[in-house]
Amino acid sequence: MDHAVTRRTFLAGSAACAAALARPALGSQPALRPVVPGVWFYQGDFLANGQCNSVIIERRSDLVVVDANSPGGALALQAELRKLSPKPVRQVLLTHHHGDHIYGNALWTRAGASTLAHHAMLPELVRLEPARWRSQAANDTQLAALGDAPQPPSQTFDGPLLVLDEGGRRIELHHFGAAHTQDDVLVYLPQDGVLCAGDVALSMALNSFFDADFDHWPRVLQAASRLDARHLLPGHGSPGGPEILTGQAQFLAALAEAIDRGIREHSEPAQIAAALRLPDSLQPWASSFMAEQIKQILALRGVAVH
Questions:
Q1: Is residue 197 included in any domain, yes or no?
Q2: Cα–Cα distance between 144 and 128 in angstroms, integer?
Q3: What integer best gives the mean pLDDT of the chain?
Q4: 294 falls within a domain
Q5: What is the dihedral of CA 17, 18, 19, 23, to 10 degrees?
Q6: What total number of domains does the chain contain?
Q7: Residue 306 pLDDT class (50, 70, 90 cuts)
Q8: Which residue in 13, 88, 99, 122 has a CA-CA distance of 20 to 30 Å to 211?
Q9: Which are the contacts of 135, defined by CB distance < 8 A and separation ≥ 6?
């Protein structure tokens, strides 16, 4: 079974999910929301249109985008950028290999940008693509029009850190190891206290675990918390501060404890989900997909699920 993240997977419980989020409607927000001078946040809506969030970073002579987004998201963002600035987009930094973050790659490279990811993305694309692309393209005309497979990154870096120190703004790309995926990259602007977390830390109930390293994920969050970010920009959900990192870590800890208990008691995923009691502070991470999320984690641990 291909465990690609698709809107169909999540839309089955989207009403319950939306009720738990308690976030403002996207239509009430400007398309590009300023974070600090020269940094803007674009909030996608995965459940409605398959888009992730993207971030725009201004340098002296160009713009840098964090996450290529889906094709629809890339086109929408490019239209907004034409209104924002005459500066070209020269680089698109990819936080991980999932389609809502990279399937728009070709639209950016056609416009003259290069795409950059961690080297760990390449074996994931070999392992998972083009099967996921083709599955989604069967019902997505925008995707089908771009070809038969995702465009890989133009450039990759290896190791834990790459620094882009040009154009008057320092940009750090951190790979703290596997978390949501094997190739997670967090983009940090130390002068601005801005951290683009990709899907390592969300502010809504849209976590997926099928490509994750669930046990190492908390260590990545701990490393991210040491970056001293004041502005946290997640891959899905609304922007905020360090409380997003804290909430994500606490949610994963509560989930791990419930799963460990469920394994000892030979419980099924639905039973584990029903028994999980999250405090009010963690309700933004609680979803109607909890049993499916637990099933994904059990699969990672090699636990048979009937």
A1: yes
A2: 17
A3: 91
A4: no
A5: 130
A6: 1
A7: low
A8: 13
A9: 2, 4, 6
pLDDT tens-digit readout, 112-170: 999 999 999 999 999 999 999 999 999 999 999 999 999 999 999 999 999 999 899 99
Q: Which residues, in sequence order, are CB contacts of 92 under 8 Å at separation 6+?
A: 64, 65, 66, 67, 68, 105, 108, 113, 114, 115, 116
Please report the beta strands in the chain, taking only residues with DSSP state E, as ranges in sequence order. 33-36, 39-42, 54-58, 63-66, 89-93, 114-118, 155-157, 161-166, 169-174, 186-189, 194-198, 231-234
User: Omega before 86 cis (within 30°)?
Assistant: no
In a domain, 227, yes or no: yes
β-pairing, 54-58 vs 39-42, is: antiparallel
Q: Could you tell me the residue range of the domain that residue 129 belongs to?
A: 26-241
Residue 212 sits in a domain whose CATH number is 3.60.15.10
**Contact of 300 with 277, CB cutoff 8 Å:** no
Considering the domain boundaries, does residue 303 fall inside one? no
Question: Residue 240 has what DSSP assignment?
Answer: B
**What pLDDT does 19 receive?**
32
Phi, psi of 230 (to 5 degrees): -95, -25
CA torsion through residues 120, 126, 127, 131, sign? positive
Q: What does the pLDDT look like over 180-207, one tens digit per residue?
A: 999 999 999 999 999 999 999 999 999 9
CA angle (173, 177, 36) in 5-degree steps:
30
